[in-house]
Design a protein that fits this description.
The chain has helices at about 1-25, 30-60, 65-95, 105, 110-125. By secondary structure, it is mainly α. Helix 1 (about 1-25) packs antiparallel against helix 5 and helix 3 runs antiparallel to helix 5. The chain is elongated. The mean pLDDT is about 95.
């Protein structure tokens, strides 16, 4: 179980690193095509592994009926939606030279950090 928890945390950390760093690099002029490739190769599988391990751990821990877990899952669904948003924006940025990043893209790192802080607090406190 400890190994699965460790794998879950490593997958989540990889996913969140991609969600935070990729838009920041794109906004600083780093070539978007390689960013998209790294995001697809690392962050997307990490997201899927985070979900799979997280659901297994929540089920085995008996937490799926807990209010804090329901709240956490809603926030992770939002985070997954933001993942899709970021993937789409990176694709658009790579293919449309005239497109300019919107406010959510420019501030995505703050949104992700805020959601992550709430999720981690819920996991630690289990209120």
């Amino acid at each position: 179980l400890a190994l699965l928890k460790t794998a879950h945390i490593l997958a989540m950390t990889t996913w969140m690193a991609g969600m935070i760093v990729m838009p920041m690099l794109a906004l600083r002029g780093v070539a978007v095509a390689p960013l998209r490739a790294v995001f697809a190769a690392l962050a997307t599988p990490a997201m899927l592994l985070t979900w799979a391990l997280g659901l297994y751990l929540a089920s085995s821990g008996g937490w799926l009926r807990e209010a804090w877990m329901a709240t956490k899952l809603i926030l992770v669904v939002v985070m997954s939606g933001l993942h899709g948003f970021l993937a789409g924006r990176l694709r658009r940025l790579a293919t449309d030279a005239a497109w300019r990043p919107d406010p959510l893209f420019r501030n995505l790192h703050w949104v992700v950090l805020g959601l992550l802080a709430i999720i981690v607090a819920l996991v630690i406190a289990k209120p």
